[in-house]
Amino acid sequence: MKILIADHNPSGRNMLNRMLELDGHEVLQAGSWKEALKCFGDSQPEMAFLGQLADSNGNASAAELKALAPNRFVPVLLSTSISDHCSLARFLESGADDFIDPPYSHIIIKAKIANFERVRELYRKLEKFRSTTEQEIKLAQHMFNAVTHKRPAEPDFIHHWTLAAGHFCGDLMIFERTPDNHLHILLGDFTGHGLAAAVGALPTSDIFFAMTRKGFGIHEIAREINRKLHKLLPTGQFCAASLVSISPDAARLEIWNGGLPPVLLINGQREILHEFPSSKLPLGVVGDDGFDASSAECSLGDIHHIILYSDGLVEAQNANGKEFGGHGLASALRVSGPAGSLLDLIKNGVIEFLDGLEPHDDISLLSINLGAAC
């Protein structure tokens, strides 16, 4: 290991130097803070022993050294005769990792170095894991972008908002029209995040777009997606989803809900007139024989908006551990605001509730303005 000794006292440096060289380490010496900074930057040591240096920044010295190697773990040990516990605590709090005090014990120094070598190995493994995870996130993001690009441009009457629990939102929101102009919409929430969600999103979107463009109904689409995901995904992986079909004149609605919160039908006074709760298993949980593809239908009549959302919205927690819940959603709808801004009302309610906190799960919210959908 390459080790830097920085101390104004030559005899102290040389004593520590001999001990380290006996154990096969490559030793660098610096007699001033200026020399220490140059040596650290030029030679990139893997560990540093930091003693008293007249021109150093005191407590901040360890942190200043570490700042020269932001992507590496370089332990800094104080070699000091300071016996004041408060002073030692300040050094450790400012960035030092440990300390040794004279007279130096070869056995103790050897044990401390071995311990930090183990920590450095853990850091290397963590960095490798981080790099692999970043690659998987980029791949998953690319896959979700590919899915998104398959759908047509989002029309004015569909408003969509997401808030990711991680690097990006893994919920799936896609829509397409049938040849006879029925509008099909799917909101899907896959178990897991990143690549785990992207693996299921690709076949789900392929089936949805292909079957919608051929004129199949949402109950047939749900069955085919379930069949595919059940074969493809391992046990415990599935997609909670709502599929909605709106007639060309926006007069009739068909809904299949498997595992998502209730689909809400809102009137012109922002009152929830009807809810379609989940009555089916999520997609991919059971095989074709046990799957219920039946859907519910209703007349839209006085309905102005349809609201779909993932469970991340109602399960969002504030700093006190309180959930936003259905009552939070209903309260957001009662806030005064311009017509046609239902999504913004709910979105603002969630953001205000979280107060800067990141949600524990991805949040997806979809609002369909039926008055503009015809």
Fold and architecture overview:
- The N and C termini lie far apart (72 Å).
- The chain contains 10 helices and 15 strands.
- 39% of the residues lie in helices and 22% in strands.
- Helix 5 runs parallel beside helix 6 and helix 6 (195-213) packs antiparallel against helix 7 (218-232).
- With 374 residues, the chain is α/β, with parallel strands linked by helices.
- The strands form 3 sheets. Strands 2-1-3-4-5 form a 5-stranded parallel β-sheet, with helices on both faces. It has a 5-stranded antiparallel β-sheet with strand order 6-15-14-11-12.
- A hairpin with a 5-residue loop joins strand 9 and strand 10.
- It has 2 domains: 2-126, Rossmann fold (3-Layer(aba) Sandwich); 151-372, Phosphatase 2c, domain 1.
Tally of separate domains: 2
Radius of gyration: 30 Å
Which residues form runs of ≥5 with pLDDT under 50?
A: none
CATH domain topology of the largest domain:
Phosphatase 2c, domain 1
Oligomer: single chain
Relevant CATH superfamily of the largest domain: PPM-type phosphatase domain
Please give the order of strands in the largest beta sheet. Answer: 2-1-3-4-5
Sequence of secondary-structure elements: EHEHEHEHEHEEEHHEEEEEEHHHE
Number of strands: 15
Q: What would you say the CATH architecture of the largest domain is? A: 4-Layer Sandwich
Overall mean pLDDT score? 89
General form: elongated
**Overall SS class:** alpha/beta
Largest sheet descriptor: 5 strands, parallel
Measured distance between first and last alpha carbons: 72 Å
How helical, in percent, are the residues?
Answer: 25-40%
CATH class of the largest domain: Alpha Beta
Strand content: 15-25%
